[in-house]
Amino acid sequence: MKTKKTIFSLLALLLFLILVACKNENKTNRNSTPEMQSHEEMDVESNTGQSSKEVLNGDTDTGSGMHAQHKSLKDNFAHQDIIILENPFQPEKSTKDDLQEVVQAYLLLKDAFVKGDLKRIDDASATMEQKVADVVANSLKEDGLVAWDQHSKLYTGKLKELRHVTSLEEKRSYFSHISEVVYCTVKSFDLKDKMALYAAFCPMAFDGKGAYWISENKEIRNPYNGDKMLKCGKIEEVL
C-alpha cells in the first residue's frame, strides 16, 4: 500500500513538472516571435522608411513615387547651384516678353549647334547675350530678382566664354551649362505659355556623361553629336 502511494506521488510530481515545462515553452514562443518580428521590421523601416509588410509585398512605391529623390529634372543637372524657383515669379508682361526673347535666342543657338556651324554658333551666342542685356527687370522683386540676377550673370559669362573657345566640342560644353540655366529660367518665370517647350537628354554626350537641351518640338535634333548621332536622345519633360 505504501509502495502504491509512493508511485502515485511520483507520477503526480512528474505530471506537474511536464505541465510547468509546457507552459513555460509556450510563453517563450509567444514572446520570442513578436520580438524577432519587431526587430526585423525595425531594420527594414530604418533602411527604407517602410514597414516589412510593404517591402515583402513588393510595395516599394510610396505616395511620392519610386524616384522621390529626383523631385525635379534639375536634380540630375551637372550644375546644382542654379537657382530655380519652386513657386514661379510672375513678372509684368513687358518683362516676360523680354525673357521669352532670351529663350527664342537660345533656340536659335541650339539650331546652330545642330548644324555644327561655328560662325553661326558665335553669331547666335552674341544675339542671345544682347537679348539678356535687353531684359528690363524693373518688375522683378524679391525671389524673382535674385533668380534673374544670377541667371543673367551666368548667361553673359558663359556666352562670352563660348565665343572665346575655338573648338566645337569646347563650345558644346558651355552650351550644356547655358541649357541648364534656360531650363531654370523657363521654370522660374513660367515662360511656356507662348510656346511648347521640351527638355531633352542625350546620354551619349561628353563621353557618356550626358547632357540636356531645350527644344521647341518633340522631334530629336541632337546639338551635341550633330550628324553623327542626330536622333540620339529622348524627351525627359514637357515644360
UniProtKB/TrEMBL annotation:
Family matches, as InterPro entries: DUF3347
Keyword Signal: yes
Residue intervals of the DUF3347 domain: 102-193
Signal peptide limits: 1-23
Protein's UniProt keywords contain Ubl conjugation: no
Pfam families assigned: DUF3347
Name recorded for this polypeptide: DUF3347 domain-containing protein
